[in-house]
Amino acid sequence: MIITRTPFRISFFGGGTDFPEWYREHGGSVISTSIDKYCYITCRYLPPFFKYKHRLVYSIIENVSKIDDINHPSVRECLRWAKPSNGLEIHHDGDLPARSGVGSSSSFTVGLLHALHALNQTMITKKELAKLSIFIEQKKIKENVGSQDQIVAAYGGFNYINFNKDDSFDVQRLILNKNNLNNLKQHLILLYTGQSRIASDIEKNKIHNLHKKKNQLHEIQSYVKESFKLFTANKFNPKNFGEMLHETFMLKKELSDLVTNDEINRIYDKSLKNGAYGGKILGAGGGGFLLLVAPPSEHTKLKKVFNKYTVVPFDFEDEGSKVVLFQPKGFN
Q1: Residue 209: is its pLDDT beyond 80?
Q2: Quick check: pTM over 0.85?
Q3: What dotted CATH number matches 2-175+318-326?
């Protein structure tokens, strides 16, 4: 039996420039971090005593005899790639809800591929894991997704990621001094709006509009370099950080009408009126999590204002996807 633990992520700046359709022509860059909320994948060889060969347990249960009969797209394509000769049982558990903007789909794919390698007792580097996950999601599942979520899930940590025109990428770990890191954490609120959405549908609309939104995307990308200076300065300025997130959020809204809705706009506007410096909707948009930046002195008030929503406490993490249980026994 194998259990992998793969983190979810928060993307701060550069989202949208990690679409292959964009960076193959212009290059791209993002600053993202993994957080201590995880996707857990349990994988084992299934004993040969059942009428089915593969058993999948996530929000539903699938018992199938053939890989091609699997409904879950990531599991189906990962197993088509892995070509297991034995039956498998795969369970998924997550700390945060799916379709909420924290990269849960990519964390699932990264975690499953990591588990399949471990079950086969083969090693895989973080870079190989990220590249394979991008290949599965973009080429095999044919999802309308960028390339940052898979990298952050595999590598973990606070990273400056550059996407090159030849499809390669470079990961630079950002080392914030202790005071800056604490200052950043103390100003963040992660608010769950209670709305889920299909990210691929929103991203498809953005990709369709890329040629019309070049100015917005170039400006979004410019904030990556500016924020790098902010994070690595001797003294972090949370007000400037919040205002920069706000500006990129306004630009992100221009990429697609699906990024926000009346409820998200109402929540966000209300947060600004109650002391927040700024913030953004995470992931593709359309629902899920809002990240707010506000002085610690305003957090109690903001939590009262939004008491019908869930505020999720979190910390940063720097391990990325890892095997947390390895017991190579079974019916293989």
Answers
A1: no
A2: yes
A3: 3.30.230.10
